[in-house]
Amino acid sequence: MLEKLEFTEPCERARLQFENCGSRRYMPLSDLKAPKGHCVWCDKKLKGRQQRWCSPSCVSSAQRRAAPQNPAAKIFRLIHLQNWACKACGLSFEESMRKDIRARYEKLNRIIDEKEKSSWVRRYGRLATDPEEKVSYYWLGSNTGDIHQTDHIIPIHKGGAGIDPANLQTICTDCHKLKSIEERRRGRI
């Protein structure tokens, strides 16, 4: 039902390239460099027609690391690294997110009649012969800024790394507002 994502750890070279990003909030994947014939993420030897990546897992892992504010990265962090809960207060989003996953899954997998195959109807259903669709992390995380947000544990302006996973957390909007107010208050004193 929810898309299956695997995570591949970056090799030492890729990790160092990310650490050199400093306070940047995003790193273009084209900036990742590797020796010719090696994956830019895990450094495995490329096969056949592969040019930069050895597997889809390497691509998605790099995308989540390079763009941590992306909806897919935010939801991946919330579900897999934080066990469906706000890192600050522990508020669980599991029940509401599971309902959203179920609703999106049912909408994506509504079987339509072969006769009503017009483009408008086709967009909102699938034929029985179509493969089953999975709810993507990106869909689940888009337009959720009023519910939960990506937060830098150590603010970037105070020296925190922009895209380092150790400096990122997904927290509810109320906790994010309180944390920001407290940081501003401490900055003035």
List the topology elements.
Layout: H1 12-19, H2 56-66, H3 71-81, H4 94-108, H5 119-123, H6 137-141, E1 148-152, E2 168-172, H7 173-188
Antiparallel strand pairs: 1-2
Brief rundown of the structure:
By secondary structure, the chain is mainly α. It contains seven helices and two strands, in the order H-H-H-H-H-H-E-E-H.
Characterise this structure.
With 189 residues, the protein is mainly alpha-helical. The protein has two domains: 12-83 and 138-188, no CATH class; 94-137, no CATH class. The chain is built from seven helices and two strands, in the order H-H-H-H-H-H-E-E-H. A two-stranded antiparallel sheet has the order 1-2. It is flat. The mean pLDDT is 88.
- Overall residue-averaged pLDDT value: 88
- Low-confidence region ranges: none
Strand order of the largest sheet: 1-2
Q: Note the overall shape.
A: flat
Reported for the largest beta sheet, the result is: 2 strands, antiparallel
